[in-house]
């Protein structure tokens, strides 16, 4: 299954009346990500700064970067899906130009996740932006 775009996710979340329904939508998005095989979950692929374990693999073909991700927590897997909707299969310049703060604001996300999850989300975004910078 292909993830919806970041704009589609914003529209979809606005449709729900409460955050319980929005959390379920985010969790369902996470379930659509295939995850990683166990042998790919190596220490060098762990994102530092996350409370849960998050593994990130980037693949750059000279034009766009794609990401393979996985987490041991279902809500974090859903948050990864939100990040992938913004960044996956984009050029390094497009990744760096994307207004991730505006995206998270539009989702009203950070008011509804714990501070430690928010820090982890920022760590994931920072890692992806660093990878993009290294490929510009």
Automatic annotation (TrEMBL):
Residue ranges of every copy of the Fe-S metabolism associated domain listed in the record: 11-130
Signal peptide per UniProt: none
InterPro entries, alphabetized: Fe-S_metab-assoc_dom
Pfam families: SufE (PF02657)
Gene3D superfamilies per record: 3.90.1010.10
UniProt family annotation: Belongs to the SufE family.
Record protein name field: SufE family protein
């Amino acid at each position: 299954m292909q993830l919806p775009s970041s704009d589609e996710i914003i529209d979809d979340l606005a449709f729900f009346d409460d955050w319980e329904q929005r959390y379920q939508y985010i969790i369902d998005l996470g379930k659509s990500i295939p995850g990683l095989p166990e042998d790919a979950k190596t220490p060098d692929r762990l994102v530092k700064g996350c409370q849960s374990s998050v593994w990130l693999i980037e693949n750059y073909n000279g034009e766009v970067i794609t990401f393979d991700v996985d987490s041991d927590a279902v809500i974090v897997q859903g948050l990864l899906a939100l990040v992938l909707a913004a960044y996956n299969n984009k050029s390094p310049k497009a990744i760096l130009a994307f207004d991730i703060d505006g995206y998270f604001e539009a989702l009203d996300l950070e008011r509804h996740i714990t501070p430690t999850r928010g820090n982890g989300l920022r760590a994931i975004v920072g890692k992806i932006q660093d990878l993009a910078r290294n490929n510009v």
